[in-house]
User: What shape does this take?
Amino acid sequence: MKKAFALTAAAIAMIAATSATASTHSVTPGYYGNPGYQPPIWAVNGWNIPDDTTTATPDVVNTFTLTGTVAKDCSYYGGPSPSHSIPLGAIGVKNGDTETSATAFNQASTFNMDISSTSAGCNFNNTVTIKKSAQGLVNASAGGYDSNQFTANIPYTINGGLTGTTNTSGPAAGTFVPIVLADGDAMKQVHLGAWRSNLNMGLVFTAQSKGLVAGNYTDTITVELAVDTTS
Assistant: This one.
């Protein structure tokens, strides 16, 4: 019992010390009665009324800022591999006995090819680059030939395009953006804001006025989507 009493006394002392340091005020709102405090009287006195511990704040505002990061990325769906081999098979020439010396061995006709991806794009400012040989399809093992009458190259054009915006400083509605490489072009680039759409390329191999030297003709088309990492 003595120990319990000691703890209780300590608690009372702590409360008393706290009360002694707290800001308080007193009130004497009224006294009614005879002079000299002779009965009957009515009196009210108040003391040690605690004040606010800090200045009252009737309006309190807190803000919560949320932050996160989305990685810069480009995507081009080209199947299970980024490298593709497209066999054209035989490229026909005019080899009939009735052809004249002006048409014999010419490419038989113009032919076309489409290379399309239904899922391409970048989520930040970016550059789309399409490259090919300026000579087109090249026969690297053509041997000797009369260059006035024959060629070891098959030039071709690329009519590419996508839906996006060339605005790189703010939002803008996307429109068709052409990427066209003529016969003698080796590269074309477009600078775009974030976009996503199909990316289509139409290839046109126009028949020439010269005969084609026999052999294997090849070229590599490169499509690169590169996000701007400096912004």
Notes: Residues 1-7, 9-20 have pLDDT under 50 and may be disordered. Residues 87 and 218 are 9 Å apart (CA to CA). The longest strand covers residues 111-122. The first helix runs from residue 2 to 21.
